Each structure stands twice: as C-alpha cells, then as structure tokens.
C-alpha cells in the first residue's frame, strides 16, 4: 500500500518521473564488484529530469530476477537493467525480460553479423555461445554497442519500457549518453532537468543543521532541500527541476541565500570543493608555513595538508604517548604534567619551534574504552594552533583510531586551521 501511494503521487507528475534501476550479477552481491554503475546512471538521469526512486541488486537467479523485474514494471515507467546480456549460461537477463513481457526470443541477423565481424577483425573465431547475444525479445528496439559484443535492447510495453544494458562501465556509459538518454527524451517528451547545488558545512552535526534549516526542508517543494552527513561534515543539497540549468539556478538562488544566512561561516565550500583545498588555498594566500604534531591519528592530518599544500607544509610528526616524552627530551623539551588541553598547546608550540614554521598545530587524542570501536570512539580530542602572536584551542568529546574517527579528526583540524587563518 505504501508503494502504491508513492507511485500514485509521483506518477501524477508525468511519465519519466518514476524510475527503477536494477543491477544484475551475483558478483555484486558477493562483494567482488562494487556497483558504481548505479551512481553514474542516477546522475545522468537527474541531469535530464528523471527521478530515481528505486535501486535493486539481484543475483543470477531466474526466479528472483523474474520477481524483481515484474515488481519493477508494476511500480515504474522506466526500468533499466545492467549486466547479464553476455554469452555465458549465467547471462539470463534477455530470457527473463522476454518472459516478464510475454515475448519470445528471436534472432537478429544484423546483430549476429556484427558479433562475428568483431571477432574476425581481432583475429579470433567466435564460439557458438556468442550467438546468444544476437537473440532478443521479439519486437525489441535493438541498440548497437560499438564498444563490445553484447548489443543493448529496449522492450516497450503499455507505454513503459525495459532497457537492458551491458554491465561493463565504459560500454554502458557510451550507450546511456549516445542512445538511451536521447530515446527517453524523445519517448517521454522530457523538457526538464534536475540541477542541484551542494553547500558543505563543518563544526555542525546533522541534527544541528536540521534544527537550523528544518523549516526550509519541510516547506520547500521546488527546489527541495536535504542533508547528507559525513564524519565531521554535513552537506546541504538544494535541488531544482526546471527547463534548463539557468532556470533551475534562479529557483535555487533565494533558498541558497536563506540557508547561508542561517549556517553562516560553518559553510566552507560548494559542490566539488573540499576542506583540504580550501585550507591549502588559505595557506598559500597567507604565505605562511605550517608543521603538525599528532599522537593517535597515524599522520592522516599531516598528509591531508601535505597533499594539497606542499609548498606551505614543513614537518609532520606522529608519536604515541609512550614515546612522546622520550622523544621531546632529545630537544631538551619537557612536557609538563598538566591538563590535556595545555599539553596539546605545548605540543603545538614545540612543533612550531623545532621546524621553524610560522604556524604550529597539534592534535592530542585520548582513547577511553574499547579501541576496536571504529566510529565515535569513547575519548577526548584536543586541538591547538599557534603562531607568534596568538593561539586557539578546540575540544571534541570523541577519539578513536577507526577510519571515520580519523576523518573526523582531519575535518576538525582543518576547520580550526581555516578559522585561525581567516582571523
């Protein structure tokens, strides 16, 4: 009932709005291959005004594929499959599409000639199983694939369609751009595109962002507003549907300005900008050098600076707690038994002094509890930055050695460096 309600409300907007994308292959379910095709196709469809509502991955199993394709046709106008149209016995997409649409598989001589010629040009003799690729559900629209042996095909039924593409990414991408998008635009008279703007924020959790802009998210219809959380970062997506990018941008602009007022300097960039690049540009513009000390983050903060600001990065140093004092003694520097915040500040001063940098930065993390926790590990994280005239410190209530916690440490560090340079 819930699915029917969704379909009814969306179908009223016109054909092409309801879309199902299906990836086929047991290797996807086993984790041997990552399904990157779906994300790529989703973006291309959005650019042409087609909303993606469902994605499914199904193994090479006739019963399950039959069920998924039948279900897909019942709730979508457009169904796109990727994979399963090759020559091997587990390539059964064409068989299941024929069954679901009530059609027979019939050979196509032009496709068979194309397959044979492709092999001969490469000095190879095609095996008999390659003939399977030249069979299609009757009355299919056959789409030639110049980049591979498996032709694509489209089966139309009741003003709906199933589009079957190869799973090989470079073959699929060429077909989408050069054959499938033009077909969909023509068939469904698509006259709108979906364009979006992404605002990237730091130092705010997902719930904080929701609290600040929740009213806009609830009341906006075109454009729509949504959030996506990452460790240490929350993205705000503003998406508009219009005849062209220029019209969509006009719809986005006033909403964007309203959100910028509410989120202020917590917004560090837009779209493809990264905090690493923003900080690197700020360092370059300031002409200042920086060196970094970190204890539990395995040098990831130093690397994030070094990779984008090589000319402004001097030294990165990492050491565990057992060796910090022993190491510092070599420089006649003694870390006082003070609070973690003061220790962190002392380490920032130390790394600035020994490296002769303009800026010293330190991250000092204390892990409490289970070290196997990969995200939001129990503990405390302290950050400090110092130059010749001022310093700033920061504290967050989590610390860990898992990838998400290390990413959170990077983002918190870069945020402090950015604001220090801004000031």
Describe this structure as you would to a colleague.
The chain is of the alpha/beta class and 423 residues long. The chain has helices at residues 2-11, 26-29, 37-47, 62-75, 93-101, 109-121, 169-187, 206-219, 245-263, 275-286, 300-306, 321-329, 340-355, 403-422, and strands spanning 19-24, 54-58, 78-82, 105-107, 135-137, 141-143, 152-157, 160-165, 193-201, 224-230, 233-242, 267-270, 290-294, 313-318, 359-367, 379-386, 391-396. The strands form 4 sheets. A 6-stranded mixed β-sheet has the order 2-1-3-8-7-6, sandwiched between helices. It has a 5-stranded mixed β-sheet with strand order 14-13-15-16-17, sandwiched between helices. Helix 3 (37-47) runs parallel beside helix 7, helix 8 crosses helix 9 (245-263) and helix 11 crosses helix 14 (403-422). It is elongated and about 85 Å long. The two termini are 56 Å apart.
Classify the secondary structure makeup into a structural class.
Answer: alpha/beta
User: Which overall shape is indicated by the principal axes computed on the Cα atoms?
Assistant: elongated
Oligomeric category = single chain
Please, how many helices? 14
Let me know the number of strands.
Answer: 17
Order of strands, widest sheet? 2-1-3-8-7-6
Summarize the biggest pleated sheet: 6 strands, mixed
Percent in strands: 15-25%
Average of per-residue pLDDT values: 87
In helices, the fraction of residues equals 40-55%
Radius of gyration: 28 Å
Pick out the low-confidence regions: 1-18
CA-to-CA gap between the ends?
56 Å
């Amino acid at each position: 009932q819930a699915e029917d309600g969704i379909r009814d409300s969306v179908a009223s907007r016109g054909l092409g709005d309801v879309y199902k994308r299906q990836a086929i292959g047991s290797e996807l379910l086993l984790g041997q291959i990552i399904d990157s095709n779906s994300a790529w196709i989703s973006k291309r469809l959005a650019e042409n005004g087609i909303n993606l509502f469902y994605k499914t991955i199904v193994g090479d199993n006739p019963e399950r594929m039959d069920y998924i394709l039948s279900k897909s046709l019942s709730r979508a106008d457009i169904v796109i499959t990727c994979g399963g149209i090759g020559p091997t016995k587990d390539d059964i997409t064409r068989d299941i599409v024929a069954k679901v649409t009530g059609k027979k598989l019939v050979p196509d001589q032009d496709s068979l000639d194309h397959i044979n010629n492709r092999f001969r040009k490469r000095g190879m003799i095609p095996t008999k199983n390659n003939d399977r690729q030249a069979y299609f559900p009757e009355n299919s629209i056959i789409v030639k694939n110049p980049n591979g042996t498996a032709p694509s095909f489209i089966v139309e039924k009741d003003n709906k369609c199933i589009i079957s593409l190869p799973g090989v990414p470079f073959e699929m991408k060429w077909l989408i751009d050069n054959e499938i998008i033009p077909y969909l635009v023509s068939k469904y008279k698509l006259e709108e595109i979906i364009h979006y703007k992404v605002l990237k924020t730091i130092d705010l959790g997902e719930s904080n962002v929701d609290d600040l802009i929740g009213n806009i998210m609830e009341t906006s219809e075109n454009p729509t507003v949504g959030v996506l959380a990452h460790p240490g970062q929350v993205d705000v997506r503003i998406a508009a549907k219009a005849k062209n990018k220029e019209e969509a941008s006009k719809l986005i602009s006033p909403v964007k300005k309203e959100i910028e007022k509410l989120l202020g300097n917590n917004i560090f960039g837009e779209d493809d900008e990264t905090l690493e690049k923003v900080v690197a540009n700020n360092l370059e513009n300031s002409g200042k050098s920086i060196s970094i000390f970190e204890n539990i983050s395995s040098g990831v903060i130093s690397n994030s600076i070094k990779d984008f600001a090589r000319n402004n990065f001097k030294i990165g140093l990492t050491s565990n707690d057992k060796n910090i004092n022993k190491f510092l003694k070599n420089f006649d520097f003694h870390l006082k038994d003070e609070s973690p915040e003061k220790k962190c500040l002392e380490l920032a001063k130390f790394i600035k002094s020994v490296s002769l940098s303009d800026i010293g930065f330190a991250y000092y993390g204390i892990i409490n509890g289970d070290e196997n926790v990969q995200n939001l590990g129990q503990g405390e994280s302290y950050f400090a930055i110092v130059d010749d005239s001022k310093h700033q410190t920061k504290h967050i209530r989590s610390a860990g050695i898992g990838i998400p916690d290390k990413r959170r440490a990077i983002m918190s560090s870069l945020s402090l460096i950015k604001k220090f340079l801004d000031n």
